Amino acid sequence: MRFEEAYSGNVFINSHPDFENSEAVIYGMPMDWTVSYRPGSRFGPTRIREVSIGLEEYSAYLDRELEEVKYYDAGDIPLPFGNAQRSLDLIEEFVDEILDAGKFPLGIGGEHLVSWPVMKSVYKKYPDLAIIHMDAHADLRESYEGEPLSHSTPIRKISEHIGPEHVYSFGIRSGMKEEFQWAKEHGMHISKFEVLEPLKKVLPKLAGRPVYVTLDIDVLDPAHAPGTGTVDAGGITSKELLASIHEIAKSDIKVVGCDLVEVAPIYDVSEQTANTASKLIREMILGWVQKR
């Protein structure tokens, strides 16, 4: 797919118009075909871009401005409605092209299953890859009601693909007992409930390694992010999540890609969730793209 043909809709604030001279590529994955509760996250990428116009381009946290990073917004990947496997294949092919061009991939979902083909693509380029996963849910099921392609399965899939000892989950507060047992038995790291403090302990162990970060917006408490498909009480604050992004930025790991998923604008008339997601993406760009 030629990137000048991929674009559809608006762009994230201050996006660079030239793919070739960009360091990072933002792209949307508007898919919610496999959700188990409330659909609507396929509208997340568009709305996050739209509200980004209200962002300050300067980060007081990182003392950087968006103009310091050249990032290209490729728009949303055209995905066939209802066809999960074909959609996943198209996402993987799209990210392969981004990586082949030497760019940093920053994806916006969409349901969390869209992260699976992205992580698989990044692993092809970085065989010593580690995953940092922030989420309310373990996402370690083999299937949901008999369906292996489900938004409750991406972390299980990538764990089995690269080895569970290379996957680090934070903020987890929901899942089947069997999911937590599987993680314990297979050497996967899970930090329940909290993100920042356990993350600080893990980051030195990952120093120098390529790391992909996948962030489900429902890691936040519903008070901070009501606009998501599967809300779960007891989450972290937006302040803690921002601090976690900054902790990664100042660490010695090599962030090689990231995504933010599960924003469903229809459930948040205040647009608090989309605006929060937009700010988080700004901090990812300014904190992580330079870490390649």
UniProtKB/TrEMBL annotation:
Catalytically driven reaction(s): agmatine + H2O = urea + putrescine
The EC number(s) this enzyme carries: 3.5.3.11
Bound cofactor: record note: Binds 2 manganese ions per subunit.
Pathway: Amine and polyamine biosynthesis; putrescine biosynthesis via agmatine pathway; putrescine from agmatine: step 1/1
Cofactors required: Mn(2+)
InterPro entries in alphabetical order: Agmatinase-rel, Ureohydrolase, Ureohydrolase_dom_sf, Ureohydrolase_Mn_BS
CDD domains for the chain: Agmatinase-like_2 (cd11593)
UniProt-listed GO biological process terms: putrescine biosynthetic process from arginine, via agmatine; spermidine biosynthetic process
Molecular functions per Gene Ontology: agmatinase activity; metal ion binding
Keywords attached to this entry: Hydrolase, Manganese, Metal-binding, Polyamine biosynthesis, Putrescine biosynthesis, Spermidine biosynthesis
Binding locations of Mn(2+): H112, D135, H137, D139, D216, D218
Keyword Metal-binding carried by entry: yes
NCBIfam families on file: agmatinase (TIGR01230)
Family per similarity comment: Belongs to the arginase family. Agmatinase subfamily.
Summary of the function given for this chain in its UniProt record: Catalyzes the formation of putrescine from agmatine.
This protein's name: Agmatinase
Annotated organism of origin: Peribacillus cavernae
Chain's gene name: speB
